[in-house]
Structures are given as structure tokens and as C-alpha cells.
Amino acid sequence: MIITKVLNNNVVISEENHQEVVLMGRGLAFGCKAGDDSRDNLIEKKYVLSENKRELLLELPADIIEMADKIITYAHAKINKKLQDGAFLAMADHLVWCDFTYPRSFLYEKFPHVGH
């Protein structure tokens, strides 16, 4: 898959089957830029985006995206059910609201399992 946007070293936006996807993986985008091939062997997670959710995602900070992924992964492990990709974006949107409302130290203190 071709990278369309690098959000940080671990998160990129790409396209698959004419749908935009968020790809995550440790070091996935290290040294990469838009137009490069993604390193498929480093992809750990993939979220498919609908067109109307693309704009929202592009406005989210990369660390919020990673935190949302960690929370969804934690929830998935606890309830042992697959969550829809929309849950990821809803969680990220909620975290943005929390980020404006509470200091980050509060969030990390209350939710240490999502990490820094």
C-alpha cells in the first residue's frame, strides 16, 4: 500500500481498495514520507475509514490516535469481541474532548494502562 500521509513514526494513512485506511505499527513510518510503500510486515492494526470520517481523522493529533487504539485494544481484550472500526474514531473524538477539558497528567493518572 502507498502511504498518503505520515502522522508519526507509528501511524500512517494509506489507501486500500479505494478506501482510506489508518495503519499502525511500531516504527511503521520511520523514515517514510507520502508516496512511499508501507512496510506491510510492520502493520499491526488497520482501521478502514469512510469518506465522511476522513476529515475528522486528519484533524486529530497522532498521540490521540495512538491512545484511542490502545483503549480499543484494551476493551477488545476485556470483552473478547471485535469492535467496529467506527468505535476507534468515536474513542479518538472523545479523547480530543477530554484533552481540552482535563490536563493530560489527569488522563494518564486515571488510565495508566493506555500509556504515554
TrEMBL record:
Protein name: CAT RNA binding domain protein
SMART domains: CAT_RBD (SM01061)
Annotated ranges, domain CAT RNA-binding: 1-57
Protein origin, superkingdom: Bacteria
Residues forming coiled coils: none
GO-annotated molecular function: RNA binding
